[in-house]
Design goal:
This protein is α/β, with parallel strands linked by helices. The protein contains 20 helices and 16 strands. The structure holds phosphoenolpyruvate and magnesium ion.
Length: 548
């Protein structure tokens, strides 16, 4: 095991001995039911209060993003609904730790159902559940001290509170066995400028004290590297940083063909307005609705949209209307049990049963847009036909919104892209769902990931069809799925005729710099190569080879 790979989430190169931090201990087995429910509940509440106070304390000692995350976690632990659920579990015969675990697991399941975007938040809830249970059991919940020299921290996963409790002054990089690109390890490592590789399952076997070279850009960990490997990685890192820093401003190919570069956001995300981008290509609004007992009010929504529009003043903001239903259920708007949730009442379809939810949301967006100078547009998720498009556009325009588009996530809407574009102003391709529905492969199933690979030539063929319709009608067709964040694939998308790319803010500099280094004609050549490849792996390898 010389070279391990994971997901590089914070670029940079570091070289030091590993220091494993073991943050979790085995919780004692407790049998239920408890003899005195009231006393057990009081003990749990005390433990929760202690954990919340500890998180608040760590928040005060940390700064910036980490402090905000810890404060939000303290609020979760203080949530009265969570406390009610714990009491309910105690009453139904669970032990103290069993009740805590069950209630947090229920919250986590609701988040997991909210889609991959929220999946990394599930790990945060698991950590909070552990903290409360460990406090109840009298176990320590602080990280053991690190060695007194520069080291690379290796852990199964790092929760925000763990990061806050580790003395990071001598940490030069982070490796975790679990976690994804939006995990808090990734967020915190980036904000501290520490190279980090997450989701590196083989790191479980890394011995303590072995020297490793961590490449946070490539997502690799080299064990006992040769001096020449270290020098090469450091040189590559330096030139990558120079290339990224050299490209700023609006997206352009080398020969000046404009491609709007936009960001995807899913909460208010303070500070994102600072990003060097042309606006927001996908504002996922689910966070306003999920895990609530009542729908967000008109005024509450107006307030939040105003804040986002203000952060992107003068720039584009495309708000996606609620994409809930089926596997992202709303407590206040129940739907029937469905055997195939992904094929059921989700996205725009929920408006068939609850039209007022969509209308109130559109009213809130329109009201906030009126008092802002952001260039606001709306789009609907999970649209399948031109008729649905027309109905959505009528509704949105009737409420006062000017620019109205739809997402193409269902192949049917791409097959009829010209008819769809006759009714609306733009199409945004949600390649995550478009891949799922094209290949009839659940995007969450690890065993089927090869189908939902965004390099699949069949998916790219659909992108080409949609882009062609847009070019013929002179209407923008963009991509806001994960496909847009892969720099080489971004070139292919541009070559296929895509006019904007929307992605996580962290992916944007690499895409911009890649674009700036290639002409439109080269992008078209890469697109032809990808389309004619027999499968995704060959398409990816061929284009990456050509791109160099
Ligand atoms: C998509 O499906 O590609 C998309 C952008 O929407 P989400 O990932 O939120 O389903
Ligand atoms: Mg989608």
């Amino acid at each position: 095991m010389r070279r391990l790979s994971g997901i590089g989430v914070s670029s940079g190169v570091a070289f030091a001995p590993t220091a494993r931090v073991v943050l979790r201990q085995q919780l004692p087995a407790e049998a239920g039911p408890v003899a005195d429910i009231e006393a057990a509940n009081a003990q749990i509440v005390t433990a929760m209060e202690a954990v919340a106070a500890d998180l608040q304390h760590r928040a005060q000692q940390s700064g910036g993003e980490l402090a905000a995350v810890l404060t939000a976690q303290a609020m979760i632990v203080s949530d009265p609904v969570l406390k009610q659920r714990i009491l309910g579990a105690l009453e139904s015969g669970e032990s103290r730790i069993g009740s805590v675990t069950a209630a947090f697991a229920e919250f986590a399941a609701a988040l997991a159902a909210a889609g991959p975007y929220f999946a990394d938040r599930v790990a945060d809830l698991e950590d909070l559940s552990y903290r409360v249970s460990a406090t109840l059991a009298g176990l320590p919940v602080v990280a053991p001290p690190l060695p007194p020299y520069e080291c690379v921290v290796v852990a199964r996963d790092l929760a925000p509170a763990d990061v806050a409790s580790i003395d990071l002054s001598r940490v030069v990089a982070i490796i975790t066995e679990e976690g994804g690109p939006t995990s808090h390890t990734a967020i915190v490592a980036k904000s501290l400028g520490l190279p980090a590789v997450v989701g590196c399952s083989d790191a479980a076997a890394l011995p303590d004290g072995v020297t490793v070279l961590v490449d946070g850009h490539r997502g690799t960990v080299t064990v006992n590297p040769e001096p020449s490997e270290v020098t090469q990685a450091q040189d590559d890192d330096r030139s990558l940083r120079m290339r990224l820093a050299a490209a700023t401003g609006p997206g352009r190919t080398r020969d000046g063909h404009p491609v709007q570069l936009l960001v995807n956001i899913g909460t208010k995300q303070d500070g994102l307005g600072e990003t060097d981008c042309e606006g927001v290509g996908l504002f996922r609004t689910e966070f306003l609705y999920l895990d609530r007992d009542e729908a967000p009010t008109l005024n509450e929504q107006i307030e939040i949209y105003r804040e986002v529009f203000a952060a992107f003043s003068g720039r584009k903001v495309i708000v996606r209307t609620l994409d809930a239903g089926a596997d992202k259920p709303l407590r206040f708007a129940p739907l029937d049990d469905e055997p195939n949730p992904a094929l059921g009442m989700r996205g725009l379809r929920t408006a068939r049963r609850y039209p007022e939810l969509l209308d109130v949301q559109l009213q809130a967006i329109a009201a906030a847009a009126k008092t802002s100078d952001a260039d606001v547009a709306v789009m609907a998720p999970m649209v399948s036909t031109p008729a649905e498009t027309l109905e959505f556009v009528r509704r949105a325009r009737g409420i006062g919104l000017v620019r109205v588009g739809v997402m193409a996530e269902v192949p049917a809407v791409v097959l009829r892209a010209a008819a769809v574009l006759e009714h609306c102003d733009f199409i945004s391709l949600g390649t995550n769902d478009l891949a799922q529905y094209t290949f009839a492969a659940d995007r969450m199933l690890g065993d089927l990931v090869d189908f939902v690979d965004p390099w699949q030539p069949a998916l790219l063929e659909l992108v080409r069809m949609a882009a062609d319709a847009g070019l013929a009608l002179n209407r923008p067709v963009g991509v806001c799925g994960e496909a847009a964040s892969d720099p080489a694939l971004a070139l292919v998308l541009v070559g296929l005729g895509i006019s904007s790319l929307s992605m996580a803010a962290t992916s944007l500099p690499a895409v911009r710099s890649m674009l700036a280094e290639h002409t439109l004609e080269q992008c078209q050549q890469y697109a032809r190569s990808a389309l004619s490849a027999p499968d995704a792996a060959v398409a990816r390898a061929t284009v990456r080879d050509l791109v160099g």
